[in-house]
Amino acid sequence: MIKLTRRHFAALALSATLVAAPAFAQSGTPHLILTLEGGAVEIELLPEIAPKHVERVVTLTQAGEYDGVVFHRVIDGFMAQTGDVANGDSTDDSYNLAMAGTGGSDLPDVEAEFNSESFQRGIVGAARSQDPNSFNSQFFITTADASFLDGQYTVFGKVVSGMEAVDALEKGPQEKNGAVANPDKIVSATIEYR
Q: Which residue positions does the secretion signal occupy (predicted)?
């Protein structure tokens, strides 16, 4: 008997999603709706300036990959980071919670799509390693002016409602670079076209 883990099931779902239809088969602008424990956050995605990043987020969202994933790094007055679909599920064991922020999806990394959009409050950017072409699944929402990131990280969305829920997320201490010991999570994530 074969036992399917959540990760195996997610990989199958991603494969089916990729084969089924292109991410932008819908008309209108895609909006990422994050239902958090403290309320809903609506993010207008920006395929006109970062189509590959938006396509990845749409694909992962439609496969249910962001459901239950924690905000593992939240720095007061700067940003809140989430999206580690490999290690950031709060229902996984403590090892996975300790590793949150180090993983991505089973899909290949996405090349940078730098643009002229500035990192102001409510901007959504692609998290990455030192390699600018290493975005996979993680992203962050800025909670204040972070224009020092302009041209170094890809902007692919902006919050249109619900910043109060982002502001209310559990913060991590500065001495731990914002790593959150008891993180809030994304209850569910969906895509709507408007």
A: 1-25
Q: In what order do the strands lie in the sheet with 39-45?
A: 73-75, 79-82, 139-142, 123-126, 155-161, 39-45, 30-36, 186-193
Strand partners, 190: 33
Closest CA relative to residue 44, chosen from 32, 56, 35, 54: 32
CATH label of the domain that carries residue 144 = 2.40.100.10
CA distance between the termini of the chain: 44
Q: Flag the least confident range among 3-17, 25-39, 79-93, 173-187.
A: 3-17
Q: In this structure, what token pair is assigned to residue 103? A: 């993983």
- The total number of structural domains in the chain stands at 1
Which stretches of the chain are assigned E, i.e. beta strand? 30-36, 39-45, 73-75, 79-82, 123-126, 139-142, 155-161, 186-193
CB 13 within 8 A of CB 130: no
In Å, how far from its chain's centre is CA 11? 17
> Which of 24, 109, 103 shows the shortest CA–CA distance to 62?
24
Residue 189 contacts residue 34 (beta carbons within 8 Å): yes
